[in-house]
Amino acid sequence: MEKNKIIEEAKEILIKNFQKEGFTIPCEGLYPFQWKWDSGFIALGYAYFDIPKAKKEIETLLDAQWNNGFIPHIVFHTDSDTYFPGPDFHQSELHPQSSKKWRSTGMTQPPITGFILEEIYRVVEDKADMLSFIKKCIDKVYRNHQYFYEQRDPKNEGLVYIYHNWESGTDNSPIWDDIWDTMNPPEYEFERRDTTHVDASQRPSKREYDHYLHIIEIAKSHNYDDKEIAEKSPFLIQDPLFNAMLIKSNESLINLYGLIGDRSKIAQLKKWQEKSIQRYNEKLFSEKLNAYVHYDLRNDKQIAYVSSSSFSPLFAGIPDKKRAEILVKTMQERFGGDDKYLCASFDPTNERFNPKKYWRGPVWINLNWMLYYGLKEYGYKELSEQVKNDSIELISKAGFYEYFDSRKEIYVDKNKGGYGGNNFSWSAALIIDLLHN
Ligand code: DGY
pLDDT of 82-134, one tens digit each? Predict the structure, then answer.
């Protein structure tokens, strides 16, 4: 497909997925509400052709912020029976400070809104107009960061925890298998909806869902209290992607507050930032794997697997040049090769790799988007171009899917490597940005 045609199709997808209530669904059927990190990527796509919608997307998300600064992973602005688990399962009202206006989940997702605001500012022509919008909403984003540092960092390390795999964004990564091995949840009875929209072989198993629901039940039994969760949740992880997003967003807030002129917020953000970057480099790098990895706070050990999250610190400027070089070598050795598209979501050399299943191996456009900018920033021009061109090629061959098979052979006869939801909003939104670069 040629460039303009891709852009036009991508815009159509976003427009079609926009809901009259002022937010955009990730895709029809499978994900019928507003998701936190999706909304950020989507807003960036709109910034190229419909600025009011870009602003609206951010406003509707921030409107669901809780009184303690928390921003939920799904906001249930509307009713829908195509998704499980919905608002009646999550019961966000259990938390005393939850939004009285919107029901939501009681978990969050990677904090990308900060850097999205800066990206949108980069893209738009009318900087004054965008800055006045940013002035109106930036303190809410700041309060979200404050929430993370004050409520999600029990050891005061500058690294925040997640208590659920759905908070990571990389929902059923094989990394979580190690945690499931430490748990034995009941066999819940429930009606899955996701497998009515998508082939079950591309989605998590029933047993995996038992684990997912069980951690929510535990959090609910503590009324979603962060302190209690930190003490009791069997799933307690310092995630390299999540923390890299927070660090990248800190940097953007520092830059944006610089334009606005708020010295005290800048000073606080710099304090958080310095500590976070230092501890991230000390604690989340594995000398054995030559990559950043997840840290299991509950069992006090690194989880020794390489995934696309391992390279996300490049996007946030976390490694020094020497370590960036090591990281790039790891990426090329494990994830590269003429027979593969970059960048698989999980280590293709590991036995747990599955190129068809959700986050267990396929390529995701949002991670590629981060890797493109990260590699470019560190001066890896050729590799960054490869990540960008692979992303464009996957979409032009297979369509605007949620995730893509990383094996080139799949696309030879029939272009069948697109999996999960189709007409997927962030794939559309981010390809618009990549094609403008
Ligand atoms: C799902 O239902 O799989 C969602 O991605 C959770 O965020």
Answer: 999 999 999 999 999 999 999 999 999 999 999 999 999 999 999 999 999 99
Distance between CA atoms of 339 and 361, rounded to whole angstroms?
15
* Span of 50-64, 251-265, 414-428 with lowest mean pLDDT: 414-428
| CA dihedral of residues 386, 308, 365, 193 (deg, nearest 10) | 150
Q: Atom 3 of ligand 1 has which residue's CA nearest to it?
A: 171
Q: Decide if 171 is catalytic.
A: yes
The predicted model gives 153-162 an average pLDDT of: 98
Q: How far apart are CA 295 and CA 58, in angstroms?
A: 31
Residues with Cβ within 6 A of ligand 1?
Answer: 73, 166, 171, 194
Instruction: Answer for the pair 407, 355: CB distance below 8 angstroms, yes or no.
Output: yes
Distance 320 CA to ligand 1 centre (A): 34
Q: Residue holding tokens 């990389």?
A: 170
Atom number, ligand 1, closest to the C-alpha of residue 109 = 7
Atom index in ligand 1 nearest the CA of residue 203 equals: 3
Q: Give, for 104, the enclosing helix (H) or strand (E).
A: strand 103-104
What pLDDT, on a 0 to 100 scale, did the predictor assign at position 366?
98
Quick: pLDDT tens for 209-237: 999 999 999 999 999 999 999 999 999 99
Q: First vs last Cα of the chain: how many Å apart?
A: 17
Q: Would you place residue 437 in the very low, low, confident or very high pLDDT band (cuts 50, 70, 90)?
A: confident
Among 171, 167, 166, residue whose Cα is nearest residue 148: 167
Q: Return all residues near 78 (Cβ < 8 A) that are at least 6 apart.
A: 19, 21, 32, 33
Distance (angstroms) between ligand 1 centre and the Cα of 228 equals 24
What share of residues in the chain are helix, strand, coil (percent, to 5)?
A: 55, 10, 40
Domains and CATH numbers, the chain: 3-334 (1.50.10.10)
Counting ligand 1 atoms within 8 A of each CB, the residue from 36, 164, 171 with the most, and so the one to mutate, is 171
The answer to whether 325 is a known catalytic residue is no
